[in-house]
Write a structure and sequence with these properties.
5-stranded mixed β-sheet, 17 strands, Hect, E3 ligase catalytic domain fold, single chain, Rossmann fold, 3-stranded mixed β-sheet
């Protein structure tokens, strides 16, 4: 098996002004370092590049691909120019370097920091490395605060900061948004139909029947030819309709700060309370009047159930249509139905639905069947762990015996019991045996370690299997632990996508 070296490079937007941090410069530094390693000859060199991504989180495509390959045991060594290239979040960065990579026997090298886990033998790298973690994180936090402050100042001056305008608007001169008259009438029609008393689903059905392109399809046609609309199929979504109707920006009011990052540098957002929003009236030309906005939203709210308590059910947020890949929503509290099943008439998932109790039973029966299969086979895993440990012990014993023989041989030579020629001859033979036995021991140790890891996993899986067998139905705990998605197809065919490394 060849030795695989991964070269990871990252360049954020704020780094672009520094030529020393450019991707070509990082590549040159990393390749020069890699060539100095004894493992370079015959090694496979892989490059992973995140260009234009912040280092404050690990939601980057290339680093996720790299971590997936580490998880599969395909990466022997990771190299970065400096620690900040890999990540600026001290806790996450330290977790991967000190916990994850050693677990998969993956060496980590930071060239500029003179940091190499192969020299640490399980140590954390010392307080100097810890300080570098913190410095990188504080730098990122400072940049984030400064960037946010400048952005808010420009917003308050009336500049529209988003790269993409909301449906029905486009950027005019001086960065001010103006109505996009090509689709502005569609927006006005949506509000008018809502004001007339129709709900979101009825409006979506009407827009679909009129064959009006969805916002995504219009975006693909006018601004982004690569925008993916494969899941739309020309069908308007109830959620899209409701987002348009609830957006006060169509009245000319610019709203700042409706969402915030869950953490510094994270791309994941959460909605802020409306009391914390900043509203700038008369910011841009309105598409509709405030009166029409209020009437439309007043009528839409009639269809909401007041004081409705959220029901917790095992498969919440996990059920998807197998035909169009859209989420299936609960109807009447008893049935999952495809979002598009009552809007479009000419798609495969028309009227696709399944009762909640039936779906949960199918999923639970499938999980239980897999649990029983595991319980019937996990004895072999324990036997293999015992066998590999015994094999390793045997070879370690033989290695010690050869080492003792070599010491005894040297003692005989020193005491004059062997002449030089005979000593060299016998030593050469022992050296060959020692080299062979060391290689055998290394292989045996790796097999024993793998077998022990498999056994540890099997113990946890057995506990899970016992928990499943003790249950009489699908619980929320089991669903959250095991299931990523459940796909429903016509004729009640069901497919389960499990969470990786959570099952048997």
């Amino acid at each position: 098996m060849s030795y695989t070296i991964a070269l990871y490079m990252r360049l954020s937007l704020e780094d672009e002004k520094y030529d020393s941090l450019s991707i070509p410069n990082q590549r040159l530094i990393l390749r020069e370092k890699a060539m100095s390693l004894p493992e370079w000859d015959g090694a496979e060199i892989l490059e992973f590049v995140d260009n234009g991504y912040t280092g404050t989180n690990f939601e980057r495509p290339a680093v996720q691909q790299l971590l997936d390959m580490v998880n599969l045991g395909r990466i022997n060594c990771i190299m970065v120019k400096d620690l900040s290239r890999f990540g600026r979040n001290s806790i996450e960065t330290a977790y991967f370097i000190e916990k994850v990579f050693p677990l998969y026997h993956t060496r980590f090298i930071s060239v500029s920091d003179d940091f190499d886990t192969a020299r640490l033998n399980g140590d954390t790298g010392g307080i100097d490395v810890a300080f570098k973690y913190l410095i990188n994180e504080f730098y990122s936090r400072d940049m984030s605060v400064k960037s946010k402050t400048a952005k808010y100042a420009r917003m308050r001056r009336g500049e529209y900061q988003s790269k993409i305008c909301i449906y029905g608007y486009k950027k005019g001169e001086d960065g001010i948004i103006v109505p996009d008259e090509a689709v502005a009438d569609n927006v006005r029609m949506i509000f008018q139909i809502a004001a007339d008393g129709k709900n979101g689903g009825e409006i979506a059905r009407r827009m679909t029947e009129l064959k009006i392109p969805t916002p995504g399809e219009y975006k693909r046609k006018t601004t982004n030819a690569k925008y993916d609309v494969s899941r739309v199929n020309g069908v308007w979504n109830r959620g899209v309709i409701l987002r348009i109707i609830s957006d006060e920006q169509y009245t000319g009011t610019y709203i700042i700060g409706r969402k915030e990052n869950i953490a510094v540098g994270s791309s994941k957002m959460r909605r802020k309370p409306e009391s914390e929003w900043v509203k700038i009236p008369n910011h841009h030309p309105p598409t509709i009047s405030k009166e029409l906005f209020d009437k439309a939203n007043g009528n839409i709210k009639r269809f909401s159930l007041p004081n409705r308590q959220e029901h917790q059910y095992p498969l919440k947020g996990k059920v998807y249509c197998g035909c169009c890949d859209h989420a299936m929503n609960k109807r009447n509290g008893t049935t999952y139905a495809c979002e598009y099943s009552h809007i479009a008439t000419d798609i495969e998932c028309k009227n696709l639905k399944i009762r909640e109790t039936e779906l949960e039973k199918v999923v639970f029966d499938t999980i239980r069947a897999q649990a029983k299969c595991f319980l019937n086979n996990d004895v072999d895993i324990a036997d293999m762990a015992t066998k590999q440990s015994a094999e390793l012990e045997k070879h370690e014993k033989k290695l010690k015996e050869l080492q003792c023989s070599k010491r005894e041989l040297y003692e005989q030579f020193v005491l004059g019991l062997l002449d030089a020629e005979m000593y060299k001859l016998k030593k050469a033979g022992l050296d060959v045996q020692l080299a062979e036995e060391k290689n055998i021991c290394a292989v045996a140790a790796d097999k024993a370690r793998t077998a022990q890891d498999d056994y540890a996993d099997s113990v946890m899986s057995r506990e899970l299997a016992d928990e499943i067998n003790a249950a009489d139905k699908l619980t929320q705990t089991l669903a959250e632990r095991l299931i990523k998605r459940v796909y429903v197809f016509p004729n009640n065919r069901v497919e389960i996508e499990y969470i990786p490394r959570s099952f048997f």
